[in-house]
Amino acid sequence: MSTVSASGSHPPRQEPGTLESTWRALRGRCPACGEGHLFGRFLKVAPHCTDCGQPFHHHRADDFPPYIVMFVVGHLLGYGIYVAETRFEEVPLWLHAMLWPSLAVGLCLALLQPVKGAVIGWQYGLGMHGFARASGSRVDERRTGGEVAAELRLGRPETAVAEPATPGRRDADHPRPLG
Ligand SMILES: [Zn+2]
User: Fold this and answer.
1) pLDDT per residue over 2-49, tens digit each?
2) Most buried residue among 29, 64, 88, 138 by CB atoms closer than 10 A?
3) Beta bridge partner(s), residue 48
């Protein structure tokens, strides 16, 4: 089902809550509409939703998903190895050597995509990074910390963030010191 009109504009949609957007993306769906696909390939995030057009390039999942996966899989396997060693002492060594590395690889491959999706959906739901600016209705209520700080400091919420700090250039807020 496509909600994109012939003119390319999108009808206003109900913004999902953070839990809803996280759950949608965990299942590999667009966090905004829940219909389009979030991933183009296994871990390659699509540039935008094929259904509603929501851009995905704002995400900053980076190393967080594999960190979560390593944490979860490490604890699961650590407990499993501990139980196997203490309760089933007759488990042969070759079985240990086959079982635990296979489980580690299998669990990591199975968890990486949903965990990465959940992280992206979570960032979308919180309006983090560029996701806050991607949807006009989210700008005012979901500003980033940097934008709020810039607004408090300069009183120019839209332009203060985009302006790079040009060496040698001084404005009214940072006057050239006298003498
Ligand atoms: Zn979508």
Assistant:
1) 444 444 455 566 788 899 999 999 999 999 999 999 999 999 999 999
2) 29
3) 55
Distance CA 125, CA 135 (A): 12
The Å distance, Cα 42 to ligand 1 centre, comes to 18
What distance in Å separates the CA atoms of residue 55 and residue 53, rounded to the nearest whole number? 6
Number of residues assigned to the chain: 179
Q: Ligand 1 center to residue 114 CA distance, Å? A: 17
| Single-letter code of the amino acid located at 114 | P
The answer to whether 19 and 118 have CB atoms below 8 angstroms apart is no
Q: Which amino acid is at 16?
A: P
Q: Among 122, 108, 111, 146, which Cα is nearest to 24's?
A: 122
- Encoded tokens for 90: 């007759």
- Residue 34 CA to ligand 1 center (angstroms) comes to 6
pLDDT 10s digits, 60-98: 899 999 999 999 999 999 999 999 989 988 889 999 999
Show the beta-strand stretches assigned E in the chain: none
CB 7 within 8 A of CB 13: no
Cα 70 to ligand 1 centre (Å) = 29
